[in-house]
Amino acid sequence: MTNRPALGAFFVSLFGCASTAPMESAAPISVGEASQQLDGKRYRETRVGIHIDAPPAAVWAVLTDAAAYPSWNTTVTSLEGTIAGGEKIELQVKIDPKRTFKLEVSTFEAPTRLVWQDGNGMFRGVRTFTLTALPDGTTDVTMAEVMTGSMMGMIAKKLPDFRPDFDTFMRDLKATVEAA
């Protein structure tokens, strides 16, 4: 049997694990602009924000309906499971159709914050959705995916540019919620 903590410690000592975000990662995510990619040391973040003319509950209902994702989100081919706190979901996307991402819903704070993630200290991906209610009954939605870990230096060059898919994801979300 492999001792996973010892193996992880070996890789940390071999590659180092400190991920350092660039200064701009502390800035709020802009709403209504094209997605951004921020690169740091063993750190990559893709982020985007959009304004939706609907209340947070309406956005949340679409965002957490796993079975419906392929019908409204043109970047997703399949999403299996239940989007709820502590649940596991399996996601397949057009940008990497041969891979199934096995994610855990680690934060589920209806209707304001949703986080799903996978990985470990060697490579971790964390996607965060934040819904902000505005006084006029509409919602600002941000989405950020942060990838970190000791293997990031080797993996980063193989990762595709997620910005076009992030922009499409948010346009699809906006169109679906506003059409309801």
List the helices and strands and how they pair.
Layout (H helix, E strand, L loop, with lengths): L3 H12 L20 E5 L2 E10 L3 H8 L5 H4 L3 E6 L6 E6 L7 E9 L3 E7 L4 E10 L5 E10 L3 H4 L7 H17 L1
Antiparallel strand pairs: 1-2, 2-8, 3-4, 4-5, 5-6, 6-7, 7-8
What does this structure look like?
This protein is α+β, with helices and mostly antiparallel strands and 180 residues long. It has a single domain (36-179), classed as START domain (Alpha-D-Glucose-1,6-Bisphosphate, Chain A, domain 4). The protein has five helices and eight strands; from the N terminus they run H-E-E-H-H-E-E-E-E-E-E-H-H. It has helices at residues 4-15, 56-63, 69-72, 152-155, 163-179; strands at 36-40, 43-52, 76-81, 88-93, 101-109, 113-119, 124-133, 139-148. It has an eight-stranded antiparallel sheet with strand order 1-2-8-7-6-5-4-3, covered by helices on one side. The termini are far apart.
